[in-house]
Amino acid sequence: xxxxxxxxxxxxxxxxxxxxxxxxxxxxxxxxxxxxxxxxxxxxxxxxxxxxxxxxxxxxxxxxxxxxxxxxxxxxxxxxxxxxxxxxxxxxxxxxxxxxxxxxxxxxxxxxxxxxxxxxxxxxxxxxxxxxxxxxxxxxxxxxxxxxxxxxxxxxxxxxxxxxxxxxxxxxxxxxxxxxxxxxxxxxxxxxxxxxxxxxxxxxxxxxxxxxxxxxxxxxxxxxxxxxxxxxxxxxxxxxxxxxxxxxxxxxxxxxxxxxxxxxxxxxxxxxxxxxxxxxxxxxxxxxxxxxxxxxxxxxxxxxxxxxxxxxxxxxxxxxxxxxxxxxxxxxxxxxxxxxxxxxxxxxxxxxxxxxxxxxxxxxxxxxxxxxxxxxxxxxxxxxxxxxxxxxxxxxxxxxxxxxxxxxxxxxxxxxxxxx
Length: 420
Ligand code: ASP
Ligand code: MG
Description:
Strand content: 15-25%
Number of strands: 18
CATH topology of the largest domain: Carbamate kinase
Bound molecules: aspartic acid, magnesium ion
CATH superfamily of the largest domain: Acetylglutamate kinase-like
Radius of gyration: 23 Å
Helix content: 25-40%
Mean pLDDT: 95
Distance between the termini: 49 Å
Strand order of the largest sheet: 3-4-2-1-7-11-12-10
Shape: globular
CATH class of the largest domain: Alpha Beta
Protein backbone atom coordinates (compact mmCIF):
# COMPACT_ATOMS: atom_id res chain seq x y z
CA UNK A 1 0.00 0.00 0.00
CA UNK A 2 1.22 3.47 -0.89
CA UNK A 3 0.18 6.81 0.56
CA UNK A 4 -0.14 9.74 -1.84
CA UNK A 5 -0.63 13.36 -0.93
CA UNK A 6 -1.64 15.85 -3.60
CA UNK A 7 -1.21 19.54 -2.76
CA UNK A 8 -3.75 22.25 -3.54
CA UNK A 9 -1.91 23.31 -6.71
CA UNK A 10 -2.40 19.86 -8.26
CA UNK A 11 -6.16 20.35 -8.47
CA UNK A 12 -6.59 24.11 -8.94
CA UNK A 13 -8.03 23.93 -12.46
CA UNK A 14 -9.91 21.70 -14.82
CA UNK A 15 -6.64 20.65 -16.57
CA UNK A 16 -4.81 20.02 -13.32
CA UNK A 17 -7.61 17.80 -11.99
CA UNK A 18 -7.55 15.80 -15.20
CA UNK A 19 -3.79 15.51 -14.88
CA UNK A 20 -4.09 14.27 -11.29
CA UNK A 21 -6.64 11.71 -12.51
CA UNK A 22 -4.10 10.50 -15.08
CA UNK A 23 -1.38 10.14 -12.46
CA UNK A 24 -3.68 8.09 -10.21
CA UNK A 25 -4.70 5.97 -13.18
CA UNK A 26 -1.08 5.19 -13.95
CA UNK A 27 -0.85 3.33 -10.63
CA UNK A 28 -3.63 0.94 -11.61
CA UNK A 29 -3.57 -2.31 -9.65
CA UNK A 30 -1.84 -0.75 -6.64
CA UNK A 31 -3.50 0.03 -3.31
CA UNK A 32 -3.46 3.78 -2.71
CA UNK A 33 -4.52 5.85 0.27
CA UNK A 34 -4.82 9.34 -1.18
CA UNK A 35 -4.90 12.59 0.75
CA UNK A 36 -5.78 15.75 -1.11
CA UNK A 37 -5.46 19.36 0.06
CA UNK A 38 -8.02 22.07 -0.45
CA UNK A 39 -8.14 23.35 -4.02
CA UNK A 40 -5.64 26.07 -4.92
CA UNK A 41 -5.91 28.98 -2.52
CA UNK A 42 -9.17 27.84 -0.92
CA UNK A 43 -7.72 27.67 2.59
CA UNK A 44 -6.67 31.33 2.38
CA UNK A 45 -10.10 32.26 1.04
CA UNK A 46 -11.80 30.41 3.89
CA UNK A 47 -9.59 32.20 6.41
CA UNK A 48 -11.05 35.46 5.11
CA UNK A 49 -14.56 34.06 5.58
CA UNK A 50 -13.75 33.30 9.22
CA UNK A 51 -12.27 36.76 9.79
CA UNK A 52 -15.39 38.46 8.44
CA UNK A 53 -17.69 36.21 10.46
CA UNK A 54 -15.74 36.72 13.66
CA UNK A 55 -15.68 40.48 13.20
CA UNK A 56 -19.49 40.38 12.96
CA UNK A 57 -19.54 41.11 9.21
CA UNK A 58 -21.99 38.35 8.44
CA UNK A 59 -22.94 39.55 4.94
CA UNK A 60 -19.28 39.79 3.94
CA UNK A 61 -18.63 36.33 5.31
CA UNK A 62 -21.49 34.88 3.29
CA UNK A 63 -20.43 36.74 0.15
CA UNK A 64 -16.85 35.55 0.50
CA UNK A 65 -18.05 32.00 1.00
CA UNK A 66 -20.23 32.34 -2.08
CA UNK A 67 -17.02 32.81 -4.13
CA UNK A 68 -15.58 29.61 -2.70
CA UNK A 69 -18.78 27.78 -3.58
CA UNK A 70 -18.74 29.10 -7.13
CA UNK A 71 -15.17 28.04 -7.78
CA UNK A 72 -16.11 24.48 -6.84
CA UNK A 73 -19.44 24.40 -8.67
CA UNK A 74 -17.79 25.79 -11.81
CA UNK A 75 -15.47 22.83 -11.93
CA UNK A 76 -18.40 20.45 -11.71
CA UNK A 77 -19.69 21.92 -14.98
CA UNK A 78 -16.43 21.19 -16.77
CA UNK A 79 -15.52 17.87 -15.24
CA UNK A 80 -18.75 15.90 -15.30
CA UNK A 81 -21.23 14.60 -17.77
CA UNK A 82 -22.46 11.52 -15.90
CA UNK A 83 -22.02 12.06 -12.17
CA UNK A 84 -22.55 15.81 -11.94
CA UNK A 85 -25.61 15.45 -9.74
CA UNK A 86 -23.79 13.40 -7.12
CA UNK A 87 -20.81 15.76 -7.28
CA UNK A 88 -23.03 18.80 -6.78
CA UNK A 89 -25.09 17.27 -4.01
CA UNK A 90 -22.01 16.22 -2.08
CA UNK A 91 -20.57 19.72 -2.33
CA UNK A 92 -23.85 21.28 -1.25
CA UNK A 93 -23.84 19.26 1.95
CA UNK A 94 -20.56 20.90 2.90
CA UNK A 95 -21.79 24.34 1.84
CA UNK A 96 -24.76 23.92 4.15
CA UNK A 97 -22.55 22.85 7.04
CA UNK A 98 -20.62 26.13 6.79
CA UNK A 99 -23.53 28.44 6.00
CA UNK A 100 -25.52 27.12 8.89
CA UNK A 101 -22.71 28.28 11.16
CA UNK A 102 -22.22 31.62 9.40
CA UNK A 103 -25.82 32.54 10.10
CA UNK A 104 -25.12 32.38 13.82
CA UNK A 105 -23.29 34.94 15.93
CA UNK A 106 -19.83 34.06 17.24
CA UNK A 107 -20.02 33.05 20.89
CA UNK A 108 -16.89 30.90 21.09
CA UNK A 109 -13.23 31.66 20.40
CA UNK A 110 -11.80 32.54 16.99
CA UNK A 111 -9.79 29.34 16.66
CA UNK A 112 -12.89 27.22 17.15
CA UNK A 113 -14.71 28.90 14.26
CA UNK A 114 -11.57 28.83 12.15
CA UNK A 115 -11.50 25.06 12.29
CA UNK A 116 -15.24 24.60 11.72
CA UNK A 117 -15.10 26.70 8.55
CA UNK A 118 -11.62 26.04 7.17
CA UNK A 119 -12.00 22.26 7.31
CA UNK A 120 -14.59 22.52 4.54
CA UNK A 121 -11.82 23.22 1.99
CA UNK A 122 -10.48 19.67 2.09
CA UNK A 123 -13.95 18.13 2.43
CA UNK A 124 -15.07 19.88 -0.77
CA UNK A 125 -11.90 19.15 -2.76
CA UNK A 126 -11.73 15.47 -1.86
CA UNK A 127 -15.40 14.88 -2.54
CA UNK A 128 -15.04 16.57 -5.92
CA UNK A 129 -12.01 14.47 -6.86
CA UNK A 130 -13.57 11.27 -5.59
CA UNK A 131 -16.61 11.86 -7.79
CA UNK A 132 -14.37 12.81 -10.69
CA UNK A 133 -12.49 9.53 -10.37
CA UNK A 134 -15.81 7.71 -10.48
CA UNK A 135 -16.66 9.72 -13.57
CA UNK A 136 -13.55 8.49 -15.36
CA UNK A 137 -14.06 4.92 -14.22
CA UNK A 138 -11.63 4.79 -11.30
CA UNK A 139 -13.42 3.04 -8.50
CA UNK A 140 -12.69 4.61 -5.10
CA UNK A 141 -14.04 5.14 -1.63
CA UNK A 142 -14.33 8.62 -0.07
CA UNK A 143 -13.93 8.92 3.69
CA UNK A 144 -14.65 11.83 6.04
CA UNK A 145 -11.42 11.81 8.00
CA UNK A 146 -13.14 13.45 10.96
CA UNK A 147 -14.55 10.02 11.75
CA UNK A 148 -11.03 8.59 11.82
CA UNK A 149 -8.47 11.12 13.01
CA UNK A 150 -9.17 12.04 16.62
CA UNK A 151 -7.51 15.09 18.17
CA UNK A 152 -7.67 17.19 21.31
CA UNK A 153 -9.50 20.53 21.22
CA UNK A 154 -6.46 22.72 20.76
CA UNK A 155 -8.10 24.31 17.73
CA UNK A 156 -5.84 25.33 14.81
CA UNK A 157 -2.97 23.28 16.19
CA UNK A 158 -4.72 20.17 17.39
CA UNK A 159 -2.78 17.28 18.82
CA UNK A 160 -3.37 13.76 17.48
CA UNK A 161 -4.78 11.02 19.71
CA UNK A 162 -2.61 8.27 18.24
CA UNK A 163 -4.26 5.35 20.04
CA UNK A 164 -7.77 6.22 18.97
CA UNK A 165 -6.74 7.16 15.44
CA UNK A 166 -4.68 4.02 15.06
CA UNK A 167 -7.57 1.83 16.15
CA UNK A 168 -9.92 3.56 13.70
CA UNK A 169 -7.51 3.22 10.79
CA UNK A 170 -6.97 -0.44 11.49
CA UNK A 171 -10.63 -1.30 11.95
CA UNK A 172 -12.29 1.08 9.47
CA UNK A 173 -9.78 2.05 6.79
CA UNK A 174 -7.68 -1.05 6.26
CA UNK A 175 -10.69 -3.33 5.58
CA UNK A 176 -11.85 -0.96 2.82
CA UNK A 177 -8.95 -2.16 0.70
CA UNK A 178 -10.58 -5.59 0.45
CA UNK A 179 -13.15 -3.98 -1.85
CA UNK A 180 -11.38 -1.05 -3.44
CA UNK A 181 -7.86 -0.09 -4.50
CA UNK A 182 -8.26 3.58 -3.76
CA UNK A 183 -9.33 5.37 -0.62
CA UNK A 184 -9.60 9.17 -0.81
CA UNK A 185 -9.58 11.28 2.31
CA UNK A 186 -8.54 14.64 3.79
CA UNK A 187 -5.36 15.80 5.41
CA UNK A 188 -4.96 18.73 7.80
CA UNK A 189 -8.24 18.08 9.63
CA UNK A 190 -9.59 15.86 12.37
CA UNK A 191 -12.23 15.97 15.08
CA UNK A 192 -12.53 15.96 18.86
CA UNK A 193 -14.41 13.38 20.91
CA UNK A 194 -17.34 15.81 20.77
CA UNK A 195 -17.32 15.80 16.96
CA UNK A 196 -16.02 19.33 16.66
CA UNK A 197 -13.81 19.77 13.61
CA UNK A 198 -10.15 20.59 14.23
CA UNK A 199 -7.15 21.47 12.09
CA UNK A 200 -3.53 20.49 12.57
CA UNK A 201 -1.83 23.74 11.52
CA UNK A 202 -1.29 25.20 8.04
CA UNK A 203 0.24 22.84 5.52
CA UNK A 204 -0.67 19.96 7.81
CA UNK A 205 -1.72 17.53 5.05
CA UNK A 206 1.81 16.18 4.64
CA UNK A 207 1.74 15.25 8.31
CA UNK A 208 -1.71 13.64 8.03
CA UNK A 209 -0.43 11.50 5.17
CA UNK A 210 2.50 10.42 7.36
CA UNK A 211 0.11 9.43 10.16
CA UNK A 212 -1.72 7.10 7.78
CA UNK A 213 1.55 5.79 6.35
CA UNK A 214 2.88 5.05 9.83
CA UNK A 215 -0.22 3.28 11.13
CA UNK A 216 -0.83 1.31 7.95
CA UNK A 217 2.90 0.58 7.54
CA UNK A 218 2.80 1.82 3.97
CA UNK A 219 5.59 0.83 1.58
CA UNK A 220 6.12 4.52 0.78
CA UNK A 221 4.61 7.99 0.90
CA UNK A 222 4.64 10.33 -2.07
CA UNK A 223 4.01 14.06 -1.91
CA UNK A 224 3.00 15.40 -5.33
CA UNK A 225 4.06 19.02 -5.72
CA UNK A 226 4.54 21.62 -8.44
CA UNK A 227 8.34 21.57 -8.06
CA UNK A 228 10.67 19.07 -9.71
CA UNK A 229 12.18 17.92 -6.45
CA UNK A 230 13.46 19.21 -3.15
CA UNK A 231 16.00 21.93 -3.90
CA UNK A 232 19.05 23.07 -1.97
CA UNK A 233 17.58 26.59 -1.74
CA UNK A 234 14.62 28.60 -2.95
CA UNK A 235 15.43 29.10 -6.66
CA UNK A 236 13.60 32.45 -6.60
CA UNK A 237 16.15 33.78 -4.12
CA UNK A 238 19.21 31.75 -5.11
CA UNK A 239 19.79 30.99 -8.80
CA UNK A 240 22.48 28.43 -7.85
CA UNK A 241 19.84 26.24 -6.15
CA UNK A 242 20.37 22.57 -7.04
CA UNK A 243 18.05 19.58 -7.20
CA UNK A 244 18.57 17.11 -4.36
CA UNK A 245 17.73 13.60 -5.54
CA UNK A 246 18.41 11.87 -2.26
CA UNK A 247 18.18 13.08 1.30
CA UNK A 248 18.20 11.49 4.72
CA UNK A 249 15.34 11.94 7.18
CA UNK A 250 17.81 13.73 9.41
CA UNK A 251 18.73 16.28 6.76
CA UNK A 252 15.10 17.03 5.95
CA UNK A 253 14.08 17.41 9.55
CA UNK A 254 16.96 19.86 10.00
CA UNK A 255 16.00 21.77 6.85
CA UNK A 256 12.37 21.99 7.94
CA UNK A 257 13.41 23.05 11.43
CA UNK A 258 15.45 25.94 10.05
CA UNK A 259 12.45 27.02 7.99
CA UNK A 260 12.84 25.42 4.56
CA UNK A 261 9.36 25.26 3.07
CA UNK A 262 9.81 21.76 1.73
CA UNK A 263 7.67 19.51 3.84
CA UNK A 264 5.69 20.09 7.00
CA UNK A 265 8.19 19.63 9.87
CA UNK A 266 6.06 17.02 11.64
CA UNK A 267 5.99 14.73 8.60
CA UNK A 268 9.33 13.02 9.04
CA UNK A 269 9.01 11.44 12.48
CA UNK A 270 6.09 9.08 11.73
CA UNK A 271 7.87 7.94 8.56
CA UNK A 272 11.32 7.60 10.14
CA UNK A 273 9.84 5.59 13.01
CA UNK A 274 8.64 2.91 10.58
CA UNK A 275 11.43 3.39 8.04
CA UNK A 276 9.02 4.40 5.28
CA UNK A 277 10.63 6.25 2.36
CA UNK A 278 9.18 9.62 1.41
CA UNK A 279 9.12 10.62 -2.26
CA UNK A 280 8.65 14.17 -3.44
CA UNK A 281 7.48 14.16 -7.03
CA UNK A 282 6.31 16.70 -9.56
CA UNK A 283 2.71 16.33 -10.72
CA UNK A 284 3.53 18.33 -13.85
CA UNK A 285 6.34 15.95 -14.83
CA UNK A 286 5.56 12.62 -13.14
CA UNK A 287 8.25 10.91 -15.22
CA UNK A 288 10.97 12.76 -13.25
CA UNK A 289 12.53 10.90 -10.34
CA UNK A 290 12.06 13.70 -7.83
CA UNK A 291 13.57 13.29 -4.38
CA UNK A 292 13.63 10.26 -2.14
CA UNK A 293 14.04 10.74 1.58
CA UNK A 294 15.01 7.75 3.68
CA UNK A 295 17.21 6.52 6.49
CA UNK A 296 20.20 6.24 4.17
CA UNK A 297 22.90 8.77 4.97
CA UNK A 298 23.67 11.04 2.03
CA UNK A 299 27.14 12.54 1.72
CA UNK A 300 28.59 15.40 -0.29
CA UNK A 301 25.46 17.50 -0.27
CA UNK A 302 25.78 20.96 -1.77
CA UNK A 303 25.23 23.85 0.65
CA UNK A 304 21.60 23.84 1.72
CA UNK A 305 20.37 27.37 2.22
CA UNK A 306 17.34 28.60 4.12
CA UNK A 307 16.38 32.24 4.32
CA UNK A 308 13.85 33.51 6.84
CA UNK A 309 12.75 37.09 6.45
CA UNK A 310 10.81 39.30 8.87
CA UNK A 311 12.76 38.23 11.90
CA UNK A 312 12.71 40.04 15.22
CA UNK A 313 15.59 40.14 17.67
CA UNK A 314 14.63 40.48 21.30
CA UNK A 315 17.28 41.37 23.82
CA UNK A 316 16.38 40.54 27.40
CA UNK A 317 18.72 41.98 30.03
CA UNK A 318 18.35 41.45 33.77
CA UNK A 319 17.34 44.70 35.44
CA UNK A 320 19.58 44.34 38.47
CA UNK A 321 22.70 43.08 36.71
CA UNK A 322 22.17 39.54 38.00
CA UNK A 323 23.29 36.68 35.77
CA UNK A 324 20.85 35.05 33.36
CA UNK A 325 20.88 31.75 35.22
CA UNK A 326 18.42 29.00 36.09
CA UNK A 327 15.67 31.10 37.67
CA UNK A 328 15.21 33.77 35.00
CA UNK A 329 15.75 31.15 32.26
CA UNK A 330 13.08 28.94 33.74
CA UNK A 331 10.64 31.84 33.93
CA UNK A 332 11.37 32.73 30.33
CA UNK A 333 10.83 29.23 29.02
CA UNK A 334 7.52 29.11 30.83
CA UNK A 335 6.53 32.33 29.09
CA UNK A 336 7.54 30.92 25.69
CA UNK A 337 5.43 27.84 26.34
CA UNK A 338 2.45 29.82 27.57
CA UNK A 339 2.48 32.20 24.60
CA UNK A 340 3.39 29.36 22.22
CA UNK A 341 6.36 31.17 20.77
CA UNK A 342 9.67 29.47 20.13
CA UNK A 343 12.86 31.35 19.28
CA UNK A 344 14.46 30.45 15.95
CA UNK A 345 17.83 31.18 17.49
CA UNK A 346 18.99 32.18 20.95
CA UNK A 347 22.25 33.13 22.59
CA UNK A 348 23.15 33.61 26.21
CA UNK A 349 25.38 36.31 27.63
CA UNK A 350 26.24 37.11 31.24
CA UNK A 351 23.36 39.41 31.99
CA UNK A 352 21.37 39.22 28.79
CA UNK A 353 19.77 36.78 26.43
CA UNK A 354 19.26 37.29 22.70
CA UNK A 355 16.34 35.58 20.99
CA UNK A 356 15.30 35.69 17.36
CA UNK A 357 11.64 35.12 16.49
CA UNK A 358 9.30 35.19 13.52
CA UNK A 359 7.45 38.50 13.56
CA UNK A 360 4.25 37.39 15.24
CA UNK A 361 3.50 40.86 16.53
CA UNK A 362 0.70 40.08 18.94
CA UNK A 363 2.55 37.24 20.63
CA UNK A 364 5.78 39.22 20.78
CA UNK A 365 4.05 42.14 22.44
CA UNK A 366 2.61 39.78 25.01
CA UNK A 367 6.01 38.24 25.61
CA UNK A 368 7.71 41.64 25.89
CA UNK A 369 5.12 42.72 28.42
CA UNK A 370 5.39 39.59 30.55
CA UNK A 371 9.18 39.54 30.37
CA UNK A 372 9.46 43.22 31.30
CA UNK A 373 8.72 42.25 34.89
CA UNK A 374 12.19 40.79 35.23
CA UNK A 375 14.08 42.03 32.18
CA UNK A 376 14.74 45.18 30.25
CA UNK A 377 13.43 44.32 26.82
CA UNK A 378 14.73 45.70 23.54
CA UNK A 379 13.38 44.78 20.14
CA UNK A 380 14.74 45.13 16.62
CA UNK A 381 12.59 44.21 13.63
CA UNK A 382 13.04 43.57 9.90
CA UNK A 383 16.03 41.25 10.19
CA UNK A 384 16.87 38.24 8.02
CA UNK A 385 17.99 34.88 9.31
CA UNK A 386 20.24 32.96 6.94
CA UNK A 387 20.98 29.31 7.64
CA UNK A 388 23.50 27.33 5.61
CA UNK A 389 24.07 23.64 6.12
CA UNK A 390 27.29 22.14 4.76
CA UNK A 391 28.63 25.65 4.38
CA UNK A 392 31.99 26.98 3.32
CA UNK A 393 33.54 30.34 4.16
CA UNK A 394 33.32 31.63 0.63
CA UNK A 395 29.54 31.32 0.51
CA UNK A 396 29.11 32.96 3.87
CA UNK A 397 31.16 35.92 2.70
CA UNK A 398 29.14 36.27 -0.50
CA UNK A 399 25.74 36.03 1.21
CA UNK A 400 26.56 38.43 4.03
CA UNK A 401 28.35 40.93 1.81
CA UNK A 402 27.06 44.45 2.46
CA UNK A 403 24.96 43.33 5.43
CA UNK A 404 25.52 43.92 9.12
CA UNK A 405 25.67 40.73 11.15
CA UNK A 406 23.73 41.05 14.37
CA UNK A 407 24.19 37.51 15.64
CA UNK A 408 26.04 34.44 14.40
CA UNK A 409 26.07 30.80 15.47
CA UNK A 410 28.14 27.99 14.03
CA UNK A 411 28.45 24.24 14.38
CA UNK A 412 30.56 22.06 12.04
CA UNK A 413 27.37 21.33 10.01
CA UNK A 414 25.39 24.53 10.18
CA UNK A 415 25.89 28.25 10.33
CA UNK A 416 23.16 30.73 11.19
CA UNK A 417 23.56 34.44 10.64
CA UNK A 418 21.06 37.06 11.66
CA UNK A 419 21.50 40.10 9.43
CA UNK A 420 20.32 43.67 9.17
N1 ASP B 1 -5.08 23.21 2.90
C1 ASP B 1 -4.23 23.38 4.05
C2 ASP B 1 -3.32 24.57 3.87
O1 ASP B 1 -3.34 25.16 2.81
C3 ASP B 1 -3.46 22.16 4.41
C4 ASP B 1 -2.45 21.69 3.41
O2 ASP B 1 -2.59 21.95 2.21
O3 ASP B 1 -1.50 21.02 3.80
O4 ASP B 1 -2.61 24.92 4.76
MG1 MG C 1 0.78 22.37 0.85
